[in-house]
Amino acid sequence: MYDITVIVPPGQGIGFTLSGVQVREAATPADAHEILEAEMNDSRNGIIMIDETLKQDIPRHLQKRIDKSSIPLVVGIPVISKWEYVHTSDEVFANIIHRAIGYRVKF
């Protein structure tokens, strides 16, 4: 069975860690490229996910290797660094009540 590794900026991998995925942190794209190359050499990895911002300007030789490789599969992912509120707390509470009792209650 293969492992999954995620390469993200510092402090962004907590959720991945909680799900049991190996997290490697990289502060710069250059650091991420070094980590990515090392992880591609590790035969235990089946999937390597890397934050899209860290995948920018990837060296040509590494990109060719990624394109030819099926295992490990290298996938760029967007990592959310800032959460925004979509609803006010009153709206969230009203939606919970509506789902529970079937009626919309105004506060």
Descriptive terms for the model:
107 residues, alpha/beta, Rossmann fold, 4-stranded parallel β-sheet, 4 helices, 4 strands, 21% strand
CATH C-level label: Alpha Beta
> What is the number of helices?
4
Total individual domains: 1
Mean pLDDT level: 87
Question: And the CATH topology?
Answer: Rossmann fold
**What is the end-to-end distance?**
53 Å
CATH architecture: 3-Layer(aba) Sandwich
CATH superfamily: ATPase, V1 complex, subunit F
Indicate the percent of residues in helices: 25-40%
H-E order: EHEHEHEH
Can you lay out the helices and strands and say which pair or pack?
Elements (H helix, E strand, L loop, with lengths): L2 E6 L5 H5 L3 E4 L3 H13 L3 E7 L8 H9 L4 E5 L11 H13 L6
Parallel strand pairs: 1-2, 1-3, 3-4
Overview of this protein structure:
- With 107 residues, this protein is of the alpha/beta class.
- It has a single domain (3-81), classed as ATPase, V1 complex, subunit F (Rossmann fold).
- The protein has four helices and four strands; from the N terminus they run E-H-E-H-E-H-E-H.
- It has a four-stranded parallel beta sheet with strand order 2-1-3-4.
- Strand 3 (45-51), helix 3 and strand 4 (73-77) form a beta-alpha-beta unit.
- The model has no long low-confidence stretch (mean pLDDT 87).
